[in-house]
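To whoever is on call:

I kicked off a structure prediction for a single chain this morning and the downstream step that reads the tokens threw a length-mismatch warning. I double-checked the sequence; it's 189 residues and nothing unusual in it as far as I can see. Pasting both halves so you can look.
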Amino acid sequence: MEWYTAADKFIEALASSDPTPGGGAAAALAGAMGCALAMMAVGTTLKRKATPEADKPLLTQSLSRFASLKNELKNYIKKDGEAYAAFITVKKLPQDNPGREAAVQDALWQAACVPADAAKAAVRALKELDAVKERVADIIFSDVVCAKHLLQTCVRCAVENVRANQVYIKNPDRASELEKQINTFLKSC
């Protein structure tokens, strides 16, 4: 399969009237793309003869960290849809079911935690990018800037998905915890 075919399928899935994939999956994808673009910039820099030998160990470690974060963010694409499906399932429980409200609240919490976890991963990737950006070859530096924008997009969009669930969470401690996380995430952008 050509790479653009896969991209086309995801874009068309987003455009459909189905609720998944939605904003949380799109946020995670943006973050994974940001990590992938950072990997390309770092990997290209590592291959260049002009790259100082002293920079190579740091760049190699960074490449590994970006790969791990990319894979983590890719997992959140699927997890976002799973969290939404779990929420829909518990919403279908009979109104008189004594465990329904607790199940709904737990599902909302999980639906908020998935994009929050994606934002955490993107924040870690932004810090990693900041640590290596001065060592990336000038010829490919525009990709570092684009990676940063994609990672920031992940954070901002993930925050919107956290907020979408947070407003329905009745436990004040959980709602407060999410608010603290949101504020921390947004400071990274």
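Update from on-call: the warning came from a stale cache, not from the record. Cleared it. Sanity check on the structure: The CA atoms of residues 169 and 175 lie 6 Å apart.
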